[in-house]
Amino acid sequence: MTSDILIIGGGIAGISAAARLSAHGSVTVLEAEDSLGYHASGRSAAMFEREYGNRTVRALNYASETHLKTADGGVLSPRGILMVAGAEHLDAFRAESREMALEPISPEEAFAMVPVLNRGKVAAAAASHGAQDLDADKLLQGFTRIARKNGAQIRTRCPVTAIRHTGKMWEAETPQGTHCTRILVNAAGAWVDEIARMAGVAPLGFTPYRRSIAQVPAPAGHDVKNWPMLHGAQEAWYAKPGAGKLLISPSEEHLMEPHDAWADDMVLAEGIARYEEMVTTPVTRLETSWAGLRTFSPDRALVIGRDKEQPAFFWLAGQGGYGFQTSPAASRLACDLITGAKPELDADLVAGLSPERFDA
């Protein structure tokens, strides 16, 4: 089985790249799991926050916004963010709210937005109406539909077990047979360094971190559909309305080996306790919980570009917690670089995303 481009990884990174690249040549996507978007892509909090991430990531957010607003009728809907803090965390609150471009509001205004907030605990609040819910499944399915319409072959339950380069072609062994290609795109999420080693390419030092989340009933029977996403200062927790319920995360970053992640009950309990300090309604029941791995490069920006030592090996990695909201611009850049088109993004940003930045 031969294609012009072989993409390893069927999450939002790999599928969005397939949608772009399949207009220029034959593309095959290999996904180890039974379905696309199984790991980090299927466990996202699904928000679009323009000011989320470092400067390089924010530039990708800005470049992706138009696509997210218009593709398939748009995948964004109003949500907003509200950050609250107790008196003991005011310094961290001020720094974080500035970084996220939040506007200070009075505690009374915060109570009007979220009536279960604890009036005796909330000492400061800041908000933004710019953050939006992102329909992650709709975005993933939209890119999948484009890729398939263009003739891309998408194979699930197809883990790569060995990779070799013959001098002209890559050969990737799978239980479904050998796949040959000129260009290998590494979009394997938490496994990107493992895929690089398998291909004889030097790993770049990606680190997967676990983040857990629990779904709980709406507090005290409140209608939460118009509540903003809640953040605690010091990134101690967040809570997000969804489907009439509340998703609560301890916002942890625990270093992990690549694996099918699951939530840690003690970590969840600690995060929920921090949330409960700021509200008047305790959590009495967890309906379900899960976890995902957010994989970061050493400088926490995405890595998009050809490997310096092996140009036929292309990195599309390090999405961290930004994969969905950066995917339109990230996949466009990957397509431009692979096909030799002039990138739409400016040269400084392209350099800031290149794997060669780590040479310094």
Basic shape:
elongated
CATH homologous superfamily identity of the largest domain: FAD/NAD(P)-binding domain
State the distance separating the first and last CA atoms.
39 Å
* Count of discrete structural domains: 2
Estimated structural class: alpha+beta
List keywords for this structure.
360 residues, elongated, 9-stranded mixed β-sheet, alpha+beta, D-Amino Acid Oxidase, Chain A, domain 2, 9 helices, 8-stranded mixed β-sheet, FAD/NAD(P)-binding domain
Task: Explain the layout of strands and helices.
Layout: E1 2-8, H1 12-21, E2 27-30, E3 47-48, H2 55-70, E4 76-78, E5 81-85, H3 90-99, E6 103-105, H4 107-113, E7 124-128, E8 132-134, H5 136-149, E9 153-155, E10 162-165, E11 170-174, E12 177-186, H6 192-198, E13 207-217, E14 229-232, E15 238-242, E16 245-249, E17 254-255, H7 265-277, E18 288-296, E19 303-306, E20 313-317, H8 323-339, H9 347-353
Parallel strand pairs: 1-2, 1-12, 2-9, 5-14, 12-20
Antiparallel strand pairs: 3-8, 4-8, 5-7, 6-7, 10-11, 11-12, 13-16, 13-17, 13-18, 14-15, 15-16, 19-20
Helix pairs in contact: 1-5, 1-8, 2-8
